[in-house]
Amino acid sequence: MNKTDRLEIIFAHYDEPVPDEFLNYAKPIQPNPSEKQIKKWKSRRVAHFILYQLFKKYQLDTKLLDQIHRTPSDRPYILHPQIDFNISHSGDWVAVIFRYATPQKVVGIDIEHPQKIRRYNELLHYYASQQEIDEIHTPTILSQLTDLTDRFYLSWCLREAILKSQGVGIVKLSEVKHSLSQQKIASQHCPKGYLYFYHQLPFYLAYFIEQSETMLSLPEIFQWKDGSFHPITIITPITYQVNH
After folding, report:
1. Is residue 1 a part of any domain in this protein?
2. Residue at 49 is within a domain
3. Is residue 27 part of a domain?
4. Angle between the 148-164 and 120-127 helix axes, to the nearest 10 degrees?
5. Rounded distance between C-alpha atoms, residue 172 and residue 159, angstroms
């Protein structure tokens, strides 16, 4: 990875301790918040703390994190010509992708921590082409994904990550074209780049990165735990070309 294109993917448990000065970040103002509201708040708090750590790592002005803006579709961003980031939380986990590049390059991330079995086939028929559905049900294609749950979340997460790179909602899921056999994705809702999918973590993870003039090496994924970053080094993602 070159010096002007740096990429970080960090995840943490939503209840991971943070320093005292972050304890009340985005705390719900209403009395007696629900368990779901508390989990969402703690996830946002941990994500904010991870961003703070990354800003310190790259000697960036942490005061920018006090001025996070949102697009009309609610995608967070900061006013900086070289930084893009994206956040996802699901179930017990939260993940952050951060990119510091010249010129700015977009990123998107999605994680899914399933809490129940969903009607996978019905959902697939809602947004996927028949060819994609047929390939999902062909176990010899991407045979490392051994059951329908894995294969459904590949199909779902990659779309979310693609669309989130531009702040486009899931209403556009069907406009993302996905070939498992060719490991290619096409979408008018993102630039040319690459998509990486992991099924070996406690959750499913997909992230999209816009292609750089100088090709990025595959970055490590880190878990924030017990006050430090721990590299996750023994797993390999499924890689897709996007709009190639």
Report:
1. no
2. yes
3. yes
4. 40
5. 9
Look at residue 30 and tell me if it is in a domain: yes
For tokens 């199909």, the residue is 155
Q: What is the 3-state secondary structure (H, E, C) of 132-181?
A: HHHHHCCCCCCCCCCCHHHHHHHHHHHHHHHHHCCCCCHHHHHHCEEECC
Instruction: Give the domain range for residue 83.
Output: 6-242
Q: What is the pTM of this model?
A: 0.95
Note whether 230 and 16 are within 8 A (CB).
no
Dist. CA 214–CA 182, nearest whole Å: 24
What is the domain count for the chain? 1
Residue 59 tokens read as: 């000697």
Residues 98-115: pLDDT tens digits? 999 999 999 999 999 998
